[in-house]
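Person: Please work through this fold.
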Amino acid sequence: MAKLTVGSDGALVFRCVRWAALAIFFIISTHAAAQPVDQPAAPDQAVAIEPVARDEAIEARISRILDATGWYRGVEVAVDEGIVFLDGIAGSPEQRTWARDLAARTEGTVAVVNRIEVREAVNWNLTPALSEIEALARSIIVALPLIVLAVLILPLAWWLSSAIASLMRRVLAPWVEQDFLRNVIARTIAIPVLLIGVYLMLQVAGLTGLAVSLLGGAGVMGIVLGFAFRDIAENFLASLILSIRRPFRQGDVIGVAGFEGVVQTMNTRSTILLTIDGNHVQIPNAMVFKSTIVNYTAAPARRVTTDVGVGYDASIGDTQRLIVEVLRGHHAILDDPPPMALVDALGSATVSLKVHFWIDGRTLSPHRVRSSALRLIKRALVEHGVSMPDEAREVIFPQGVPLVHLDESQSKVAPAQTSAAAPGRPAAPTAEPNTEATSAEGGLGNEISELPQDITEATIPEAASGNLLSDQEPR
């Protein structure tokens, strides 16, 4: 019975020592301030009741191995009941972890308390840098043939793209007259060749991922740039369509977007007009394309319309023949189509005639010819006694107006002359000159052709970017 009691007391003492060692381990790991301590590492195998290796043997084995590495300074290894305590200084966190794993795998180890500090020493050794440079140089030498091939592919693709563009310009020359349109078509065909060359260069250089990213990014970038430069792209496409359709040429007189003038130039952004006032107006091509274009010089003949009012006592047929004879005798008015004088409306005091005649709009001014025709028509009507009353100043009494003389006992009624002249009006109108153009009218030529030379030859900054109408002969 006494032996059983002693044996029981020995086992109890062994357990108390073991639990005391574990308590010390947890206290040390909790209060360590200089260096964070790893969690205790248990061995892979089960802990035996009777230890196989003695603590002294475990301590000696681990100490010799750590000293043999040469990585640690001031290493101290202590083992108590299979718990390994590691102290010292390591050069890196990896070395600290390696020491812990070594102790944990040593036979007979129950747990590891790793108190090794990490102090990375300043290393002025250039050997690692030289090794990296040497490795990089080897990589460059190995990849040099691919790099040379990739560098050769890009100039070759550029040259091939330029050659294809030049060839397409010559091929399209018989069918496409405009240089701008030929260049656009040629570049559209040549650009894919250049893109294929860039893709092959990246593929040969081993940058396949970059090549795919560039192709995808090019599409996304195209969408972004399309929204950002929508107006510029719209004007460019409008200039391309205008170059194909050619609604006007350089030197034509057109009316568009509320402006009227001579077409000077058209670039990829705008169309420049020279107005009668001498101003250079730049109209965006998108607006030109969307607006109604009136081309006054597309055909030489241009019709001019004016109004003439005659009295009700005049013969309409004779007046019409008289007006037409005046217009036919005018050298600036075309005989074909013939001039016409049509009754337009019966007004309160006059019969309104609408007079139509045609002129050469390229060389003559419609306003000046209208002025000359009206002056000659008025002269002919006055000479032939055709009245041209004004309802605001003159009233006609067909039956006459009775006049009463107060100094006589009996009033005498005498018919008054029809269309009596107002007080102060001369008895006969002043005769109009029988010339087609007076000095006041300044001739009959087109006003735009008479603009000062410094205005017509003014330097336009936008015109320096290229004239898309330069290859078209003016009418």
The CA atoms of residues 280 and 458 lie 9 Å apart.
